Amino acid sequence: MAQRFGNFKVYFPNIIFKIIPDARLSKNQAAFRVPLNVNKLDIKDYLSHMYNVTITDVRTTVFPGKVSTNRFTGQKERSSRIKKAIVTTKETFEYPQEVDIDKDFGGLEIKYEEKRRANKLKGWRIRPTMEMMSLRQKILENRKAAEKEAEKQK
């Protein structure tokens, strides 16, 4: 039976931990931005079961929201609070490689469609600009390259 530390059973997690790169931390520590309702035991449970990491210590801090003045009403507003967790592991922690959104997740296609939608909302007829044409060309090149790789793997 797996050891459980926190309150939540983690089957398909619906909580998001965002890695915050911090050069001031030691090699076996990592910083995460976590939801406010997650406690230390839940953080330890989540990371140990999802990533098979041995965690020795978890420290959390809740940062207050920043106060700003609304320029239309003149009223003071406060942004939402942020919870930061610093996790210490037995092994050295290695940050994952950065993801190329344009290549891996179809970012070019998303940019192209956003541009088309924005122009359509402005009342423009859909006549592609040079920028949109170059984006479309890159999308087609990426698709052809992916198809060639798939054929080579067969």
Q: Would you give an account of this structure?
A:
This is Mitochondrial 54S ribosomal protein YmL41. The chain has a 4-stranded antiparallel sheet, covered by helices on one side. The model has no long low-confidence stretch (mean pLDDT 84). Strand 4 (67-69) and strand 5 form a beta hairpin. The protein is built from 4 helices and 6 strands, in the order ββαββββααα. The chain has helices at 40-51, 101-104, 107-121, 130-153, and strands spanning 18-20, 29-34, 55-63, 67-69, 76-78, 82-89. Helix 3 (107-121) runs antiparallel to helix 4 (130-153). The protein folds into 2 domains: 18-89, 2-Layer Sandwich (Alpha-Beta Plaits), CATH 3.30.70.330; 101-153, no CATH class.
Put the structure in a nutshell:
This protein is α+β, with helices and mostly antiparallel strands. It has four helices and six strands, in the order ββαββββααα. It has helices at 40-51, 101-104, 107-121, 130-153; strands at residues 18-20, 29-34, 55-63, 67-69, 76-78, 82-89.
